[in-house]
Design goal:
heterodimer, A: 5-stranded antiparallel beta sheet, 4-stranded antiparallel beta sheet, 12 helices, B: alpha+beta, 5-stranded mixed beta sheet, 6 helices
């Protein structure tokens, strides 16, 4: 369908963008890459009175890598992440997950801030933000604040952002080079939304046992999920076949997906377990030189 | 709103409603009907155009967002009197049947080969997975794109680059 009518503004300062959002009191929407919002408009699922285009707001496209972690400006595109060689080393889980995000043309416009603000429960990067304990730096009429991913995603397409708040950057904590990780996704076509996906990472102590395990599931709830029950299976244990099988069963038991046009609830529950199992297998076998 | 951008090298200046997509602006206002509109929600890839060097879906971009940009459509990738190497390769490999998806295939393949003239079959398949074709089964399209690589510097590079250990 053709898009519903709306006004359009293209401010050159962040404060002007905030003021426009505040003046429209929830009836204005931010336009970043437009790769989720424009389809929403085409389906008439969204009909804002104003679109506030962020493309001329400065400083939203930076990629900063330091000892404190990786900070991505909200307008960093998927193609920017994929072509950034240092980022692949600084945060390999993030870089791996982005290879599953959308198709070629979409990656040339879609942004990380847009995806996180859109909060599709089957989208990869909200799940990665949650699993990696990222935080969103936002600016609104009341000033700046940081929102932890765990407090950010409230439901399908629903976030903790106030109507006048803008995500300016996403901060991922530092990623130790020795950290083990895996990311697995199942979709009908690569680039489509996940029917289910899992992100797993853990550190290892001197005896090779997993510590600080983090397990996230995508596409099996109304928001990205942390699977504490699976993390409890992994922590303090060497990751062997028995632990992997236990983790798979715990993952299936921990999720409560809905039946929809793409898959039944039972299928998705089984898939969540399989994705955790495969991601864990990747993590356990990941670093070269293991012998 | 007035927007000003370049299409296939020519300056254009059009008055548009903010809700007009770039795809509809190209087709209805600029009469460049080579850009096809299939799904209008970013799934089929038929409307792919090249904006500032990057392949994008013209149905997911507003015309007002193109202000100041350089846009290349499928018309800009053709000549009046002869086929380009990419077009000739599509013809040689029977890479089109009904032709509806072809403009999007050509623009996407051109962007890919310009950026990555050494891409392999897996990469071509991955990139073209964002373009739906309901006729060919894709095999002939993938072959046509791979065969067109030489026109984008693939063989020249192979000649220049030393052969690595295999």
């Amino acid at each position: 369908m053709k898009l519903p009518p709306f006004e359009y503004a293209c401010p050159t300062r962040l404060s002007d963008a905030v003021a426009l959002l505040a003046a429209h009191n929830g009836d204005a929407k931010l336009l970043a890459g437009g790769q989720s919002l424009v389809p929403m408009l085409a389906f008439r699922l969204a009909a804002p009175s104003l679109l506030v285009d962020l493309r001329k707001v400065p400083d939203l496209r930076r990629i900063d890598i330091s000892a404190r972690g990786v900070t991505l400006g909200a307008m960093v595109r998927w193609c920017d992440i994929l072509s950034h060689a240092r980022l692949r080393v600084a945060h390999p889980l993030l870089a791996t997950a982005v290879t599953h995000v959308a198709h070629y043309q979409i990656r040339n416009r879609g942004t990380i801030g847009g995806s996180i603000a859109h909060a599709d429960p089957a989208a990869e990067i909200p799940g990665i933000a949650l699993t990696c304990e990222a935080e969103m730096a936002v600016v609104g009429s009341a000033g700046a604040r940081a929102i932890k991913a765990a407090d950010f995603f409230l439901g399908a397409l629903t976030t903790a952002l106030a109507p006048d708040e803008i995500i300016v950057e996403i901060r991922f904590p530092a990623w130790p080079a020795a950290r083990r990780f895996g990311f697995q996704e199942f979709a009908r076509r690569r680039g489509d939304f996940a029917m289910a996906a899992a992100a797993v990472w853990y550190d290892q102590d001197e005896s090779g046992k997993a510590r600080n395990a983090h397990v996230g599931a995508i596409g099996v709830g109304d928001r990205p999920l942390r699977l504490a029950a699976v993390e409890a299976v992994l922590d303090g244990r060497a990751i062997d076949e028995a632990v992997i099988a236990e983790a798979e069963a715990a993952a299936s038991a921990a999720v409560d997906p809905q039946t929809d046009i793409h898959a039944s609830a039972d299928y998705r529950r089984a898939l969540a377990g399989t994705m955790v199992e495969r991601a864990l297998r990747d993590a356990a076998g990941a670093p070269a030189g293991e012998g | 709103m007035r927007v000003h951008f370049k299409v296939n090298g020519a300056d254009v200046d059009v008055e548009v409603e903010p809700r007009l997509t770039l795809a509809d602006c190209l087709r209805h206002r600029l009469r460049l009907t080579g850009t096809h509109v299939g799904c209008e929600h970013g799934v089929c890839g038929a409307c792919t155009v090249i904006v500032d060097g990057a392949a994008v879906r013209a149905c997911l971009m507003l015309a007002v967002q193109a202000d100041g940009a350089e846009v290349v459509t499928v018309e800009g990738l053709s000549h009046d009197d002869h086929l380009t190497p990419l077009q000739a390769s599509f013809r040689r490999h029977h890479a089109l049947q009904c032709g509806f998806c072809t403009p999007g295939m050509i623009t996407t393949a051109h962007a890919l080969l310009t950026e990555e003239p050494d891409c392999d079959a897996d990469r071509v398949r991955e990139v073209l997975s964002g373009n739906l074709c309901r006729c060919t089964g894709y095999i002939s399209i993938v072959e046509a794109v791979l065969d067109a690589r030489s026109a984008y510097g693939h063989e020249e590079r192979e000649k220049v680059l030393p052969k690595g250990p295999t």
